């Protein structure tokens, strides 16, 4: 194959790859360093259509209030939690449900250890950071805020798989969809 055709082929493959990565952005946060909770609140405040969250542990009242606020302004919110959150002393699952937010619990006999949130099918928030006061004030945790269509699509598919798999899900009171 002549060099000119190889060069054209290489450019044809490289340009879409460059364009793809040029539009992706990832912001990194570390607890005790640069306010991951503030980053979460900022993204929740921007939500216009959907918030889908799969979270192992959710005890942070400020974040729960932000989620309720989004629900109250018309954002479709769905929360999927580990089964232990149903009875955990400081869990915000009951508080969310009492405020009309649909919550479901995993019935996985082990643990549902995901820690991610998909906002408007455009943003993924993920990392070791559970949505707890300890994660924000005591623990060494990491959080990524990812703006990337492909990654968001993968996380959305996983959330939908969890939410819709009724064999591994138990509905809570106000789960109306």
How do you describe this structure in short?
The protein is an alpha+beta fold. The chain has 6 helices and 8 strands.
Helix tally equals: 6
CATH architecture verdict: 2-Layer Sandwich
Task: Predict the CATH topology.
Answer: Endonuclease, Chain A
Low-confidence residue ranges: 13-20, 167-171, 173-177
Can you tell me the CATH class? Alpha Beta
Order of helices and strands: HEHEHEHEEEHEHE
Form type: globular
* Tally of individual domains: 1
Structural class: alpha+beta
Q: Kindly report how far apart the N and C termini lie.
A: 57 Å
In total, how many beta strands? 8
- CATH superfamily heading: Endonuclease Chain A
Helix content: 40-55%
Strand line-up of the largest beta sheet: 1-7-6-5-2-3-4-8
Q: What does the average pLDDT come to? A: 87
Task: List the defining traits of the structure above.
177 residues, alpha+beta, Endonuclease, Chain A, eight-stranded mixed sheet, 6 helices, globular, disordered C terminus
